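Schema walk-through. Below, the input block comes first and the output block second. Nothing else is stored per chain. Lengths vary across the set, and this one has 169 residues.
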Amino acid sequence: AWVLDELKRENVRATFFLVGENAAKHPELVARILADGHRIGNHTYNHLNGFKVPVAQYIANAEKCHQTILPFLSNNDPLLFRPPYGRLTPRETIKLKNRGFKIILWDVLSKDYDAKTSPAQCVDNVLQNVIPGSIVVMHDNVKADRNLKAALPEILSGLKKEGFEFSVL
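--- output ---
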């Protein structure tokens, strides 16, 4: 809810890649994400690393997430998929694409999830590396909370000052 409040305050739209287990626990937040004009995508049901599980298990987990968020999607919404950790085998890629998913990676990583990274470094990681068309990854979870809450307002402000615009994927 805090992230949604910040984005609303700044009139910014974003795309949220949802872990299905969390979406199932908090459907009211999923509904709010969409009501506020954001987009959602699939981030597997249990945040699996595609390099560490069998292909069939990974695809089944992604499908379980899809079934969880499907009631929130309209017929016009693209099926977006972001692999946790950016790890996806060629076979997983093919199977996901055959199911209609568009795989989305990123080019700017804030590293907000890393306890060794300071909030100031998270801000620098974004502001020093973003270019027009960049996809910036930030996390809304317990590990990232300290960095996210300190860095997100500065990142949004800094990007706006540099003339960047924001949109959903």
